[in-house]
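Fill-in record for LCP family protein required for cell wall assembly.
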Amino acid sequence: MTPPVPPAFNFTFARPRPPRRWRAMQAFGLSLAALTLGGLAVLSAPGNAGQAAPSPDGLPHFTLLLAGRDIVYCYYRTPCRDQDQRSGLLQPPNTDTLMLIRVDGTRVNVLNIPRDTNVGDFDPARKWAEQKVNGRYWAGGPQALTQAAETITGERVDAYMVVRTDYVARVIDALGGLDVTVPEGGIEWVDQAAGVDLRLPAGNHHLNGEQAVLYLRVRKGFGDDYGRIDHQKQALTQLAGRLRSAQGLAALPTILGGVGNGVETNADPGWLPALLPHLGDLKLSFATLPTTPVPGTFNLAVDREALARVWGAGGAAVGAAGTGSAPSLPSVTVRVVDASGARLGPALARALRTLGYARVDVRAAPQSGEASQVFTGQDVEAASQLADTLGLPRLQGERFPVEAGEVGILLGADARRSLAALSALDPTPPSPAAPPAPAAGAASLPASPSPLPETR
């Protein structure tokens, strides 16, 4: 009998779209590779890409565009033997996953760009598809894709990195695989002609590189493209965390060995060793480019006002008014999902109340290997401060199960190490007696949270 899905991770997203069965598995944007190969190196490049300017702190400060590239097909459901050829293709490769990575010393900010984002103003006289950012790589190569990203974000890009599916799988294997929680209903993607056979029942799974690439390509269970982007952020947070371990250092030859073998880049990794001692100090933040639909099309227009709130200048989210002034941060509701396997949630709740967070809800979930994280939809500044306080990555997205005025915290099994001090903290406050614990069936974080009983 299939075990039930851990309810805390059963994030239900709206309007799922069926996957395009015959298309190639698209490589998700592997930002952890950028943090090692491009993100932690001094960049030099031919053409328009320049070398990262030296800084007084001796750390890099630059922006890198990371793209996940489709496999190319020469016949129906038959991948080409030469994945770099540009003629005789059944369908050109798109770059459906794009991430702009800004490195400011040890602070790393990642902005996901949706594949349907329009480059510049929409022109009704032109075809819709040729105006989308995901087609620029094939139309003009990585330089054209880089220019498109600069147009969309208003940010100068110092270098690019385009990664292929097989490279992504090798890196995930080198980092020990990926722990995931499959949503209720499970996932099944079978295409024998293309060599795809992914069948995962609901619940916790440990995936190898090939399985992980397929899993991160699927939209079923995660809703639309925004849901998949948010899901990928969670996976990348987990994998990037492993770079700080001995296993992460052992994986560096695989990561660096991708150049010319699944990686197309103008980033110079020559100075990577200089920043290796700082891996443990990296502070990761993820956000999604805010967009609005172009009426009557499938294209998306950039919402620049919202972009300033989630991306900001210099990697810091600004206040709602764009002034950078801090709101009353403890006014947000904090929703804690405790999947640590060590009951750290109640102790964390007490610590947060001591800091002034008056509304903290805790829900227990089965132990999970997913990375501990702070996540939010709109309350970016509050989430950023909370993430800095706890030393956790901050994820902003469009489909996370929090509403305005709410910030979520996921405690995975890794919290027993990263937040070990909580285990010594008495979770019982010296205030009135605790209410009855919620029933087991109520221990889930729904997609649209309603007021929850407080765990004291």
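KEY FINDING: DSSP finds eleven helices and 19 strands in the chain.
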